[in-house]
């Protein structure tokens, strides 16, 4: 069944993301203070995300992932079937999903090995009006994508493009970027993130 925003999630989504973040931080022996400094986020905001009180934006998640030295995929829910870096196939029913429900964005991890892989592919679904926020964000790596349905407005540095079905893109993730659904129907984008190895 295709990923959809029709069923609107609620606070338990924020709790799951927060618990995952807390576990990753503690696994690395970092305090809230240390992670907040490394991620450039306030201790209070980071604490609220961990407790499920606040929803993290993609910008905040990218900053947290960089500070932890992990791909954003590592912040998704537990994906035991993909923990082995040698896993080749992941079935649709086993995919991890991150629902940024307050921003109208859902990211489904299409590839196995999310926490250990330098290459992750997502299906991103944006409801009409959904966006990553007013301020652009940047992180490590490189990204590319293909618009399947709807209209995507992509801004990288000072340039903005409007892409439709069949249009594609690629850019260095260190360049400030943001994106939004510029249309009146749901937009679906296959999005690739690649981290530098080593």
From TrEMBL:
HTH cro/C1-type domain boundaries: 21-75
PROSITE patterns: HTH_CROC1 (PS50943)
Keyword S-adenosyl-L-methionine: no
Name of the molecule in the record: Cupin domain-containing protein
Gene3D superfamilies with a match to the protein in the record: Jelly Rolls, lambda repressor-like DNA-binding domains
GO cellular component, one term: cytosol
Claim: DNA-binding is one of the keywords in the record: yes
CDD domains linked to this entry: cupin_XRE_C, HTH_XRE
Protein keywords: DNA-binding
InterPro entries with a match to the protein in the record: Cro/C1-type_HTH (IPR001387), Cupin_2 (IPR013096), Lambda_DNA-bd_dom_sf (IPR010982), RmlC-like_jellyroll (IPR014710), RmlC_Cupin_sf (IPR011051), TransReg_Diox_bact_type (IPR050807)
């Amino acid at each position: 069944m295709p990923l959809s925003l029709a069923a609107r999630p609620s606070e338990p989504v924020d709790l799951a993301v927060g618990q995952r973040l807390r576990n990753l931080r503690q696994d690395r022996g970092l305090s809230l203070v240390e992670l907040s400094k490394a991620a450039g986020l306030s201790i209070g905001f980071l604490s609220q995300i961990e407790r499920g009180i606040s929803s993290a934006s993609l910008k905040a998640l990218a900053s947290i992932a960089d500070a932890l030295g992990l791909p954003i995929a590592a912040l998704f829910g537990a994906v035991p079937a993909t923990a082995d870096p040698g896993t080749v196939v992941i079935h649709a029913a086993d995919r991890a999903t991150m629902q940024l429900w307050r921003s109208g964005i859902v990211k489904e991890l299409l590839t196995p090995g999310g926490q250990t892989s330098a290459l992750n592919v997502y299906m991103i679904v944006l409801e009409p009006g959904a966006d990553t926020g007013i301020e652009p964000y940047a992180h490590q790596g490189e990204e590319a994508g293909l618009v399947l349905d709807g209209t995507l407005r992509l801004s990288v540095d000072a340039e903005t493009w409007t892409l439709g079905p069949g249009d594609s893109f690629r850019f260095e993730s260190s360049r400030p970027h943001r994106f939004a659904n510029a249309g009146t129907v749901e937009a679906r984008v296959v999005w690739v993130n690649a981290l530098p190895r080593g």
